[in-house]
Amino acid sequence: MKKFVEGSHAIAEIISKCRPGVISAYPITPQTHIVEGLAKLIADGELEAEFINVESEHSAASVVLGASATGVRTYTATSSQGLLLMAEVLFNIAGMRLPVVLTCANRSVSAPINIWNDHQDSMTVRDSGWIQLYAENIQEAIDLHVIAYKVAEDKRVSLPVLIGIDGYVLTHAFEVVDMPEQEMVDRFLPKFDPVVKLDPENPVSMGLLGAPDVYMETRYAIAKTMETALGVIQEASKSYSDVVGRPTGGLVETYRTDDAEKILIAMGSVVGSIKDVVDELREKGEKVGVLKIISYRPFPKDAIFEALKEAKYVGVVEKAVSLGADSPLFAEIAALLYKRGSNAVVNSFTVGLGGRDISSAQIRQIFGEMEKDETDTRFIGLNTELLEA
Amino acid sequence: MREVRVHARAGQGAITTAGILGSAIFRSGRYAYAFPYFGAARMGAPMNAFLRYDDKQIRLRCQVYEPDFVLIVDKTLTYGYNCFTGLKTEGVVIIDDDKENVSQYDLPRSSQKIFAVPASRIAQEVIGRPLGNTVILGAFAAATGEVDLDSLLSAVEERFSSKGAIAEKNKEAVKKGFDYIKENY
Question: CA dihedral in degrees (A283, A357, A349, A326; nearest 10)?
Fold first, then answer.
């Protein structure tokens, strides 16, 4: 059913339809409305689940780790400092192969304190072993959560999934979405059937010491599983699309890239703004397009290269930086193109840090600067007066 | 595509205003994207909410810099600050003030229009609190014809559905705002 709804409330509703048994979270802006919404659904008796109040994000992550280990579907959500406080536990959840689903309402990281949107938080835990998916709009955000449970709990995968949604831009915004019916979600998402679980009748130990004789194999196993997950994400997206009757999900989305000479690559809500500029420049006869990366981990190298192989100029537009080195997504795109023998000019553009608004003019500027080959990232929209002080 | 900028103070319901209007637009078969921008996160601080709407899905995510419509929930926001920045040539402003004060507002262009409606006062009478958002929305519907009254009333009904009598009072406030414009302009 189509409705006009706030992003956070839409996510609370879709999580409720995924029927998690245990939810634990600690409030942090701009994620708070999601768990408030879920707490209300439970209090009103509309969702049968245990909401466990905790004193920190470290505990919230630990609670969902423990609950998931007992074979229960779990959910948590956080942002920024909260995600970083969870970091230690996130690595454990992935290492223990627990299919937790987490929403990261993407927000910058202190200091200075800043509650607004960028991707630095989830980018900082990119090597934790979690699958990471990023949503362009509220519709995609709700769809990706259902797909996430299917992928996470698939026995070929058994890994946690983080869904990145842009703080405020999507969490606090209202948009028209097609909300799947409960029956559709139930049909797509069967009851969680764990590979192994903590059970007094059949005791096992989990999360044990992995000495040098086994540790490396556990990391290799996750690396290989990430490759498998590429196929599982596509498969799950396809079957979910069939259930809801519209295409959604997948690893990447190409927009007018087929004959494009200039292609921008981005993740999350800024892709929508780029699409509008692409249409505008296409009207003027410019061969431009945009590649949206939905699945950042696993990194869909084949799908990305396929979209970029004819491009002369590639620009990576990122809301995150690796201070003292190349920006994370740019480094991976440049490596991919180099390894596959591409001669495209690849440039790095940093935008929107700490909620700096990303205007259409900035995107036009980036398209205009793509032909100039530069080594370092270009910060778009800097106020140079502040730098001179 | 049309763009709306709401000026309010944190706590005065700017995002509620944009959200209700977006919902009314959705009810009349169009697409909308309503979103807030919080400056400092404290009650009373000036803040904006924005709304874009169109016949097709909205993809643009930046703030609104050249609004077709400006809604000013609190007239003190115009003191020492230009709320009309970027207003389109044919732009329309709805402000919470008495009609006789309207000449004090200097719009940049003669083609632009301003409608004053004593929204806070009407809200105080109808709702019992000086929160004039729904009055402003009724006035917007009457002044611009961008959204029909029924869609607006049904959006208000849904927004306040869990709050009992508040829904009816706000619907009344919408109608008062609508009628005020029809009778006075």
Answer: -160
Task: Give domain limits for chain B.
Answer: 2-184
Enter the tokens of residue A88: 């230690």
Question: Contact A272/B59, CB-based, under 8 Å?
Answer: yes
Percent of chain A with pLDDT over 90: 99
Domains of chain A plus CATH, in order, are 2-244 (3.40.50.970), 252-388 (3.40.50.920)
pTM above 0.90, yes or no: yes
CATH of B2-184, one of 3.10.180.10, 3.10.580.10, 3.40.920.10, 3.90.470.10: 3.40.920.10
Residue B135 CA from chain centroid, whole number: 8
Asked if B64 and B87 count as a contact pair (C-beta separation under 8 A), the reply is no
Q: Are B153 and B174 in contact (CB under 8 A)?
A: yes
β partners of residue A313: A262, A345
Q: Does A270 touch chain B (CB under 8 A)?
A: yes
What letter does residue B36 receive in the DSSP assignment?
A: E
CA–CA separation, A153 vs A140, rounded Å? 20
Residue B172 C-alpha from the chain's centroid: 16
Crossing angle (nearest 10°) for helices A215-244 and A80-95: 110
Q: How far apart are CA A347 and CA A376, in angstroms?
A: 8
Mean local confidence (pLDDT), A127-141: 98
Q: What is the mean pLDDT of chain A?
A: 97
Spatial CA neighbour of A174 closest among B87, B3, B33: B33
The arithmetic mean of pLDDT across residues A82-103, rounded, is 98
Q: Is the pLDDT of residue B38 over 80?
A: no
In the β-sheet with A288-293, what is the strand arrangement from edge to edge? A252-255, A288-293, A262-266, A313-318, A345-350, A378-379
Closest residue of chain B to A362, computed from CA coordinates: B62
> Confidence band (pLDDT; 50, 70, 90) for B40?
low
pLDDT digits (tens, 9 = 90+) for A235-265: 999 999 999 999 999 999 999 999 999 999 9
Check the CA dihedral B19-B21-B27-B28 and report its sign: negative
Single out the residue of A101, A88, A217 nearest to residue A158, CA to CA: A101
Answer yes or no: do A272 and B32 touch at CB < 8 A. no
- Per-residue DSSP letter, B3: E
Quick count: other Cβ atoms within 10 Å of Cβ A288? 25
Mean pLDDT score, A127-143:
98
Q: Residue A50: helix, strand or coil by DSSP?
A: strand
**CB-based contact, B23 to chain A, within 8 Å:** yes
